[in-house]
Design a protein that fits this description.
Layout: H1 3-22, E1 27-28, E2 33-41, E3 44-46, E4 49-52, E5 57-64, E6 70-74, E7 79-86, E8 91-97, E9 102-105, E10 107-108, E11 126-129
Parallel strand pairs: 2-5, 4-11
Antiparallel strand pairs: 1-2, 2-3, 5-8, 6-7, 6-10, 9-11
Length: 130
């Protein structure tokens, strides 16, 4: 390969990585749907922060690898998973239309508190709608 080809590959790879990082791991498809895959393990959410734009349909797929149930909800969007909790070893999905700007914690421990971005167990799932 010549130097121009190698440089082109490096630039293209950099653009792909930058696009991925700009969406906090979310995948934006052509229909305005932004999808995030969240793994719950060791009482933490990975990734622990996601960002979408006003107007996006947001889909969050959860996988709970912990031995305890985790509750998630976004009262601002009337969104939660079926039953309000993801049971140990299970998966669940939450969907909503991001119709307003907000930054809040979707991880529930002891009930929803949209202004609290931390809880006593260290669980955080910060959802930013910009």
């Amino acid at each position: 390969m010549n130097q121009i080809t190698i440089a082109s590959i490096i630039v293209a790879a950099g653009l792909v990585v930058a696009a991925f990082l700009a969406t906090n791991g979310g995948v934006q498809n052509g229909s305005g749907v932004k999808t995030f895959d969240i793994v719950m393990q060791n009482n933490q959410y990975q990734p622990s922060e996601i960002t979408a734009n006003v107007g996006d349909r947001v889909v969050i797929n959860f996988e709970n690898k912990d031995q305890v149930a985790h509750g998630v909800a976004l009262a601002q969007f009337n969104a939660t998973v079926p039953g309000g909790h993801i049971q140990p070893g299970r998966t669940a999905r939450m969907e909503f239309v991001a119709d307003r700007v907000v930054s809040t914690d979707a991880a529930l421990c002891g009930g929803p508190n949209p202004t609290d971005k931390t809880d006593t167990h260290g669980e955080e799932l910060i959802v930013n709608i910009i």
